[in-house]
Amino acid sequence: MPPSNDIFTRNNVTIAGTGKQVLLLAHGFGCNQQMWRFLMPLLSPHFRIVLFDYVGSGASDMQAYNKQRYASLDGYALDIIEICEALDLENVILCGHSVSSIIGLLAAQKIPQRIRAQIMICPSPCFLNLPPDYLGGFAKTDLQELMDLMDKNYIGWAQYLAPLVIGDPDAGQYSAELSDSFCSTNPVTAKNFAKATFFSDYRSLLPLNQHPVLLLQSERDALASLFIGEYMQAHMPQSELQVIEAKGHCLHMTHPQQVADQIHVFSQRLDQTLTQTME
Amino acid sequence: MDPVFTPDVFPCGCLVTTLSEQVILRANPYFYQECQQDQIPRQRLSDFLTPASKIVLESFVMPMLLNLGHCEEIQLTILGNSGERLPVLVNAQVQQSAEPLIFWVISSAKQRDKLYQELVDLRNALEEKAERLELLSQTDELTGLLNRRAFINRAQQLLKQADRNQQNCSFLLLDIDYFKQINDIHGHACGDAVLRQLGQLLQTNCREHDVLARIGGEEFAIICMDSPSDSAADFAEKLLRLVSQQPIEGIAVTVSIGVATAGQLSFEQLYKQADLLLYEAKHAGRNRLVAALYPAIPITIES
Questions:
Q1: C-alpha to C-alpha distances, A42 to A260, B56, B62, nearest whole angstrom
Q2: CA neighbor of A34 nearest in space, from A176, A183, A192
Q3: d(C-alpha B25, C-alpha B182), whole Å
Q4: A277 vs chain B: nearest CA distance in angstroms?
Q5: Taking 70 as the threshold, does the pLDDT of residue A181 lie above it?
Q6: Three-state secondary structure call for residue B208
Q7: Residue A184 and residue A191: Cα distance in Å, rounded?
């Protein structure tokens, strides 16, 4: 593992907030840690919050990008594991948006002793429709069309032809990328992340869960339907499902108060359970 | 409002939606015309989009709108009434108020999409070609092993890695004995076959992280990180034995090997040392290896 300092720079780790309980917030596909900014004022008085960007997203170090490592969610989980180890975090509540819920689950299985619980905001273990038992919401052709659509958007966004000109798509030529751009403007890393996210099926992980999990769903979400929330709750031990009276896939941005309230209640209940066990 | 200057007259789709679920509150006739759909109350923008576009909407457009308040030139695909796909270009802006709204401008991007598709196809074709050329430029045509240039590249990376881990690296320089005679007596085709088969023999016996190449006429090179369990000299000895054990193309082939091991030397220095040791092995009668740890005294092992 690289030295701690390298990990902080590599993943653009920021630490904020006051409180004993560590809360690690993991952004989803498409964005970066800035997506947590609406939640921060509500959470930072109560938690020690660790924010980061996955390598390939946000202001992470593009030199550290490895196409192979980040071609599957395990590579992203390794980012979380390495951050937890570099900061020597214990008793962490992992809170992930969308695909980061599953990335968190992968990480939690590798370092169960460091994780206390997980909060999953609009999660999905598999975006594919696999009838008759599972409807992730998308057909394989839809997801292929997504790759095509991303390509077409990247032409307009940034550096579309750069990897070609330079020859090595893994090389660190992206460091000059604007670090303040909100959504990922890097075609190589974003498409790789999209493939890892949308073509995977991690349903088999759910029964292996070892930690208390809070599932937060919205009433209507184009990417993660209520069916998926119910499916996850049914297949994952120690999980509870809370449906927030709201619509859309970015609850933590559109309804930060409701999400923060749920996080507080969940965290307090963890403490109570702990006290009871100790008594 | 001036009856001439209304959203109804502009040749682009104009919409006002809610922020959180993008429920269409107002839309001009052009939008419905373009989508070839009828107006139904309380429709959402996503009702008009392909599944892939919904993902782009939720993963890029909405986070951008929520965080920055605007987004420009996003390409999405509208799903027409009878299933046809219409590429569109979307600009949007959030108006903050008691109930925040999004103002959308959606215009056709049919022509632009064709151009983009061409560009995407071209890029993919070029990428594939570049990958193929890259592979070609690294491969020795005759043996399929790495060529000299690729070897130098990889070897230098390995040396850097060894330096960081404070490990020793070994350079094995291996040369076929009396190769000129093989060519002269059995012909060049047979010589080529010997090179190919020896290359294969070496490849099968190399360990996972060894870098093997044909770097000259009848000269092969292996660079490897030293492991305490399996020293480079032992490895070279094994190769020496393997080659001399069975004839290649019906010919008794032997090799001589120079093995230079060092922690601090540059690639050029290491190469030079291995070359000197190979010369010693040849001079001492061939079919043997000479290994040296720098800075120390060389040892000779006869096959």
A1: 6, 28, 21
A2: A183
A3: 86
A4: 41
A5: no
A6: coil
A7: 10
Mean pLDDT value across chain B: 90
Contacts of B77 in chain A (CB under 8 A): 145, 149
Placement of tokens 């109804």 in the chain: B8
| Band of residue A169 on the pLDDT scale cut at 50, 70, 90 | very low
State pTM to two decimals: 0.78
Which of B18, B19, B49, B58 should be substituted to probe chain A, the one whose Cβ sees the most A Cβ atoms within 10 Å? B58
Question: In what helix (H) or strand (E) does residue A269 lie, and over which residues does it extend?
Answer: helix A256-278
Is the ipTM beyond the 0.85 threshold? yes
Report whether pLDDT(A65) > 80.
yes
Peptide bond preceding B63 in cis form (omega within 30 of 0): no
Nearest CA in chain B to A223: B55
Give the pLDDT mean for A76-86.
97
Question: And the tokens for B152?
Answer: 């130098």
Q: How far apart are CA B277 and CA A85, in angstroms?
A: 46
Using pLDDT thresholds of 50, 70 and 90, give the confidence band for residue B165. confident
- DSSP reduced 3-state for B33: helix
Are B150 and B138 in contact, with CB atoms under 8 Å apart? yes
**Strand ranges (DSSP E) for A75-225?**
92-97, 115-121, 129-130, 134-135, 213-220
CB A119 within 8 A of CB A266: yes
Check if B130 contacts A (Cβ < 8 Å).
yes
Q: Which pLDDT score is estimated for A171?
A: 44
Which residue in A has a C-alpha nearest to residue B100's C-alpha? A254
Of A136, A103, A95, the residue nearest A205 (C-alpha): A103
How far is residue A135's CA from residue A126's CA, in Å, rounded to a whole number? 9
Q: What is the pLDDT of residues A247-266, one digit of tens each?
A: 889 999 999 999 999 999 99
Kindly report, residue by residue over A129-144, the tens digit of the pLDDT.
998 999 999 999 999 9
Residues of A carrying an active site annotation: 98, 221, 249
Residues with Cβ within 8 Å of residue B208, at least 6 apart in sequence: none
B37 CA to centre of own chain: 45
- Flag whether residue B125 sits within 8 Å of chain A, measured between CB atoms: no
Determine, for residues A223 and B55 on separate chains, whether the beta-carbon distance falls below 8 Å: yes
Let me know: does A244 contact A217? Beta carbons within 8 Å.
Answer: yes
Across the range A8-21, mean pLDDT stands at: 94
